[in-house]
Write a structure and sequence with these properties.
This protein has helices at about 5-25, 30-35, 40-70, 75-100, 105-110, 115-145, 155-170, 175-205, 205-210, 215, 235-250, 255-260, 265-300, 315-325, 330-360, 370-395, 400-415, 415-425, 435-450, 465-480, and strands at about 305, 310, 430, 485. It has a two-stranded antiparallel ribbon with strand order 1-2. It is an all-alpha fold.
């Protein structure tokens, strides 16, 4: 599949998204942009959230991670499942009862203005970095397999990618996203299923023969329980996954904004619980695909692709799909799946960043009605430019597997949110609101120092994703130091 064919496919795909945007963005109101008029069917949101949660990072990076980590990622996924239950039963009732547009408005009602801004800023930084990770991944694939052949610089690839997202979200916002995410999830799952089928066929295997093969056994260890000091130990991975989900979904405006478009709390809870069960199975399928890719590469002598002279396992899937002679069906479905996976998370990130900045930092609800829509559109452009800058920066500073980098960043940036929400829900205390930012800053610095300690100083103990609950716990303890006696009934 050559570069011209890939560009034609991208053009047709975005034409379809623009068609959806035309019909869903006719109203062009802030109410539809931010909350879709609270009229989204729960099953539509649930299906679309599969693609948004997996994203291009899972589509490319999870299969590429199998060689070095086997199926240990499933330990984190099991933790995800527990986290989704907490979100459905604890956080969703809170958000629906308060009727918030931005979930961080809860912090203002519970503690005050500074706590609200600290929470909103934590999300803002987290989502900018998370969205940039995802967009960076799709940009390097497009660069490697399309634009390098034409001498187009990486920076231009990034600008084009984000400009396309802006075009189909600038009118409909979250109302458009709910529908485009559904389409994109379908394309992504079809791509994975067809890739597994055709690669097995090329290897002369049926699916049953692949699952029973000795080659798969070399990659498929799921549970790692030898030493608690290891980074991927079961307990550490499970707890880390649970808290990552609570933070990256339940305390994240991007993910919760979709759930808040459902007609009722009950619908939103059905969406969350059904989606989480399906997500476990889908992640396992991605890991199976990863093992199959490395088996195929070993069988046919395909080396790990290089980027700037460095091996990039994240690029093995596109290398095999596009350049190994598996045929046009695999190539076409891979590109559709990649584009769908990447943009299903990036488009909602752009919309949620616009929502958060307008509601949490600009106070758009207090402005004259004739200015609100104009402000929203300007902020939408500003968020697009910000993402462009961060994605380009990543090309020069990112030196690890993308999903590992994404989850590591989450352990720092979501800690203040975890601590603040936990304190608000679990205690009756008020806070000395003006000092909350100091606690958040000190804890992040402490956690950063701890994360960078060499294992030798800790008796060989490797710090992993348990850093996130530790971050939240330290924030919680720090907030206890600045607590005040409750005044009236707390908002819980």
């Amino acid at each position: 599949m050559n570069a011209s064919h890939i560009l034609l496919l991208i053009g047709l795909y975005f034409a379809l998204l623009l068609l959806i945007s035309y019909f869903t963005g006719k109203n062009d109101s802030n109410e539809d942009f931010f909350k879709a008029g609270q009229s989204s069917p729960w099953y539509l949101v649930a299906f679309g959230m599969i693609g948004a949660s997996l994203s291009g990072v899972t589509f490319i990076s999870v299969p590429g991670w199998v060689e070095s980590s086997q199926f240990s990622y499933m330990q984190v996924v099991f933790g995800y499942l527990a986290g989704y239950v907490v979100i459905a039963l604890v956080l969703m009732p809170l958000y629906y009862r308060l009727g918030v547009t931005s979930i961080y408005e809860y912090l203002e009602q519970r503690f005050g203005w500074v706590s609200y801004k600290v929470g909103a800023l934590s999300f803002f930084i987290s989502r900018v970095l998370g969205a940039a990770f995802r967009l960076f991944l799709v940009a390097i694939v497009l660069q490697q397999f399309v634009f390098d052949a034409w001498g187009v610089p990486f920076e231009a690839t990034v600008v084009l990618s984000i400009a396309l997202i802006w075009v189909y979200t600038f009118r409909g916002g979250i109302k458009t996203i709910v529908w485009t995410d559904t389409l994109q999830t379908l394309f992504m799952l079809l791509a994975v299923g067809l890739s597994i089928y055709f690669i097995n066929q090329s290897l002369g295997w049926s699916l049953a023969e692949f699952l029973e093969s000795e080659e798969l056994g070399a990659y498929s260890q799921i549970l790692f329980t030898d030493s608690l000091a290891d980074k991927n130990h079961l307990v550490k991975s499970f707890l880390g996954g649970m808290f990552i989900t609570i933070c990256m979904t339940g305390l994240d405006q991007d993910m919760m904004q979709k759930n808040l478009t459902c007609r009722s709390l009950g619908d939103a809870q059905k969406n969350m619980l059904s989606f989480s069960a399906v997500l476990v199975v889908v992640n396992l399928v991605f890991l199976l695909l990863g093992a199959l890719l490395f088996i195929y590469a070993d069988r046919f002598g395909i080396g790990t692709p290089l980027m700037d002279g460095t091996p990039k396992p994240d690029l093995l899937f596109p290398e095999i799909a596009l350049n190994s002679g598996l045929g046009p069906v695999v190539a076409v479905t891979f590109m559709l799946g990649l584009i769908a996976a990447a943009y299903s998370s990036a488009d909602s990130a752009l919309t949620s960043l616009t929502t958060s900045f307008c509601v949490d930092f600009m106070g758009i609800a207090r402005m004259p009605a004739n200015l609100q829509k104009r402000l929203r559109k300007r902020v939408h452009i500003g968020m697009s430019l910000l993402l462009i800058g961060v994605v380009i920066l990543f090309k020069y500073v990112l030196d690890r597997n993308v999903i590992d980098g994404l989850l590591t960043v989450a352990t720092y940036t979501y800690g203040p949110l975890l601590g603040l929400f936990s304190f608000g829900i679990l205690t009756p205390y008020a806070l000395k609101d003006s000092r909350v930012w100091i606690v958040a800053l000190v804890v992040i610095l402490l956690v950063s120092l701890l994360a960078n300690l060499p294992p030798e100083l800790l008796g060989g103990y490797e710090i992993g994703y348990e850093l996130l609950p530790l971050n939240g716990l330290l924030t919680f303890l720090g907030l206890l130091l600045i607590r005040r006696k409750p005044v009236g009934d707390p908002v819980v």
